[in-house]
Amino acid sequence: MRKIRIAQIGINRHSHGGEVFRTLRLLPELFDIVGYALVEDERQTCESQLDCFEGYPELTLDEILNDPTIEAVTVETDEIHLTKYAQMAAEHGKHIHMEKPGSQCTEDFQRLINTVRNSKKVFHIGYMYRYNPYVADTVARAKAGEFGKIYSVEAHMSRLDPKATREWFGSFKGGMMFYLGCHLVDLVLQIQGMPEQIIPLNTATGLDGVDTEDLGFAVLKYADGVSVIRMGGTEIGGFNRRQLVVCGSERTVEIKPLEAHTGEHYTVCAEKTERYLGEDGHSKADHQKSQPFHRYKDMLTAFAAMVRGEKQNPYTLDYELELFRTLMKCCGAE
Asked: Which of 120, 122, 311, 312 is the most buried (most CB within 10 A)?
């Protein structure tokens, strides 16, 4: 199997850059890691996270971009800088795995999509639930009509963040909606498609004197139903209450928790309950718990297969653009 020569551009304070690089290290049969570059002010702001790069050379951004033997990059800067560095990588003909979801400028994201389209390279975004086995199975079965007519999706994703993190949410419109809500918007759109109307209801809890939008909520109106997404940074026990509920005419499917830690680093499991009417007309329920899975291994394994031409990215460039636009509306940014 041909190894992919890859480098990482950036790391981030509050997302998954360190774990992405550590996962590349766990996949030596797939990736030949050339090195990494720090951009913006990451040497200072991310100093405590730089141990993930130990043993690999630090390169300049230009060294990565102008080395034709480096065919792929992971772009893992802070959210507000993602589109800028992904654009540079796209202009230099690199395959790109990018942290979610991009900056908040729709015009810049449109330009990135156009550049990638012209380059014919892989553009892969790290929405983490796309490779959750129960989520992926539920999305596929919903699209296949197994749940009947779907009239509502409810998606929840919260946690308890320190004051400094919640203050950082002020870096972008929508706060928590942009930061974590992007994952949930992705799930609703995969299952139900584009909504007719979006009502953003993001707000600040005011806890600890923080005035950023640390409580996210959006209503997505469809012709025959309403879906809601909710996330917050102040919820005690919020991580364990993360859930996806799909309500259809034939059955209701609930995945809760979306992830539960197993004790191994970023190895998690999920639990699912399906409720349906039995032959006696009474509600029945089946409950399952998944085998442990690593949050990022399947994601980066799929990326490698796409780069080698063995797998087609199921998330088209058109879909990624519409997802971005929908997210901006949920953030109140459009």
From this structure: 122
3-state DSSP helix/strand/coil percent for the chain, to nearest 5?
A: 35, 25, 35
**DSSP tag of 187:** H
Cα 260 from Cα 277, distance rounded (Å): 29
Residues 169 and 62 in one domain: no
Whether 177 contacts 213, CB under 8 Å: yes
- Residue 87 near residue 115, CB atoms below 8 Å: yes
Domain boundaries, position 77: 4-127+297-314
Q: Are residues 170 and 143 in the same domain?
A: yes
pLDDT at residue 63, rounded to an integer: 98
Whether 153 maps to a domain, the answer reads yes
Which residues fall within 8 angstroms of residue 66, CB to CB, at 6 or more apart?
92
Q: Give 292-310 pLDDT, tens digit per residue.
A: 999 999 999 999 999 999 9
User: Rounded to 5 degrees, what are φ and ψ at 328?
Assistant: -60, -35
Total structural domains within the chain: 2
pLDDT of residue 9: 98
143 and 289: one domain? yes
Note whether residue 333 is domain-resident: no
With cut-offs at 50, 70 and 90, classify the pLDDT of residue 89.
very high
Residue 263: band (very low, low, confident or very high) from pLDDT cuts 50, 70, 90: confident
- For the residues 192-218, what does the mean pLDDT come to? 98
For residue range 118-146, list pLDDT tens digits in order.
999 999 999 999 999 999 999 999 999 99
What is the layout of strands, in order, in the sheet containing 4-9? 31-37, 4-9, 72-75, 95-98, 123-125
The CATH number given to whatever domain includes residue 69 is 3.40.50.720
Q: Are residues 56 and 189 part of one domain?
A: no
Q: Are residues 31 and 114 in the same domain?
A: yes
pTM for the full predicted model: 0.96
Residues 6 or more apart whose CB falls under 8 angstroms from that of 281 comprise none
